[in-house]
Amino acid sequence: MQSGKKSTQFPRAVLMEVAWEVCNQVGGIYTVIRTKAPAMVENVEGPFCMIGPYLGKNIQAELEPLNDAEDLFGQAAANLRKRGYDVHYAEWLITGKPRVVLLNPNVIETKALNVIKYLLWKNHGVETPEKNELTDQVVGFGYLTKLFIDEVVKLAGKDDPLIVHFHEWMAGLPILDIRREKMPVKTIFTTHATQLGRHLAINSPLFYAHLPFFNHELEAKKFGIVTEEAIEFRCAQNCTVLTTVSDVTVRECRHLLKRKPEVVVPNGLNIERFEALHEFQNLHALYKKEIHEFVMGHFFQSYTFDLDKTIYLFTSGRYEYRNKGFDMTLEALWLLNEKLKAEKTDLTVVMFFVTKREFYSIKPDVLHSRAMMEEIRQTCEAIEREIGKGLFFASTTRADNRLPNLNDFVDDYWKLRYRRTIQSWKTSRLPMVITHKLVNEDNDDILQFLARKNLLNRPQDKVKVVYHPDFITSTNPLFGMDYSQFVRGCHLGVFPSYYEPWGYTPLECMASGVPAVTSDLSGFGDYLTRNFPDHEKNGMFVVERGKRTFDWSTRQLAAFLHKFLMQNRRERITQRNNVESYSAAFDWKMLIKHYRQAYDLAVQQPS
Q: Which range marks the domain in which residue 204 is found?
């Protein structure tokens, strides 16, 4: 290493990072790629670009075109354009401004695509289905990426090694031909979650115990993922260095991909920390008030409770009822509700389930209640103005200085409107547990559980549930806030996952100064357990699921939730301070060293 060189800087190389999620928001890997970009740009030692698919013009707003650039990647892109391919070379306008090459797989004609698919089967034994749009795009993208790498190899010369880092099966196909053609390129393949592992975890009650005994080819046929599994398996077998995101997925790779990853590359975030702790505490108070507004509109037309003694819990993520731990969360909430009722506590818990589902629309009653509460607000503000004007006039004209009867300043019209508005808003119906009308609502697991356990937002229930099957954004008519703001306004995130290769949601809580629950079967929870033995006192609780029964873990979760509720306000503030202080350890500035380890190892491998 050169004198004075930062320990995280990568080896001198031409580095390309390929992912389906470059400039293409699909899932969690997009967060990895986007948030890691500044640390990548800062630490590269040589030319660097990201490669992704060009799937629509919507991304143009985030790009600054570099089509006339004469650098290595600009020349390679230009060469492909001369051959008739749709190639975009640009700066991605995010922090770090990484250079990106976007390749359009949709311009490959059917006849040419069929030849590519035939060669994929002939040379590598990977069968592909007919007329499957996603698979065709993946195959086309892999072909174009390989052509681009060929051009870079021709232009780069022999001074610096070439490293290409592929994320997941959707990007990894070029690995197979790079190995077959013995190209002077070092390849790294990162699996963020094995294709087979995700399906098996959903369908196999004893997934972890049975992991060593699954036949990957037979199981892939059973779940209809033969192509995806075959690509992933062959990429893992043929890459120079195999990496994965946690020790949890190392086990999967060993048994399902038949190779142990050489490096674990944990996921991080760009952590924006406040110099003064009170600043993020102020944000919590601000956004909690906005959640109060929603809760008032949703519940208070039926009955009321003390918002100062209300605790907001939430869970979020992809709708995988068992994998994401929604089943355990619901069971623990039911136990918690029974315990709180028996204790006759004056606390109220509102639990939000935020997960994307197919729906027709927001339920009319939910929207109507929100609209009526807004009308009440406007009426109150009008009365406030009337009283203000009357009180000011009276204060300057009365002989004494006693406070007059404020009702005297309210016009009969506003009194009548106030009473009628309140009366039309109030109802004897229970507050709904779900905000939207779902497609196939009768078969929804969350709703079935709530109905079966009669956890239906009755007045006597201390635990209330709001099931919101859509993203929370600033344009959301019910919340009117961004997801990150919603997280800051809550008191606790609950994510006791059964299958979670990493788990960004509890990490996002940590970065926002919000305590969270995870599990030892998630990569993030496993990382906490291994590296932060005092995590519980600092606001991060890890449910034991790996060697425990479902019932045991559920009772443990319910006990932790109860313990959390019993804290006073000062203790919760201290815990938020503590959990926020942990977040620095998960900044990409710290975790990028694992990528350097992978790149160093790749360069050291013989050609």
A: 14-270+591-604
